[in-house]
TrEMBL record:
This is Uncharacterized protein. The lineage of its organism: Bacteria, Bacillati, Actinomycetota, Actinomycetes, Pseudonocardiales.
Amino acid sequence: MTTDVIKTADLEATGVPRHVIDLKCRPGGPWQRVLPGVLLLSAAPPSRDQRLRAALAYAGPGAVVTGVEALRAQGLPGLPDAPVIHLLQPAARRRACTTELLLERTTRPPGTVVRAGLRLAEPTRAVLDAARREPHALRRHHLLATTVRSGLCTIAGLEVELAAGSKRGSAATRAALRTLKALLR
């Protein structure tokens, strides 16, 4: 686990004064602010892993990465880049979204998988969260089919999760799952 992503508050708690943090985060400095209250202790552009760590640090306790980024971190290859990092946060938490993050509150936290220190939604929930937000029907079908064929989840598991979750925004995903089930018979 890397320590190059850190919350400003945690750095201050170790005794680093705010003015030193501000000085090091100036343009051309050795550090950078990647999200409000979250620093990267490097001037290089953040890697995907660093972006995920920063997102989890920003979202706080109980948050998990879901969607395409969670699937990619669990080993599913060939996925398109997600325009934003999708995170689930407890319903009582109200962190604001940024241009880089989609924070969705949930009363049904998913099962969590930890990979390289990253808290990720289990594959069944992650693929359904991604599919619900995919506007293109063929890409939605490909996403579901790829996840099932890879063995990360089953059609039965997807059906159970879909039935347990919110019905909002799930009609197209339900239709894609019915089509996939018919094709795999």
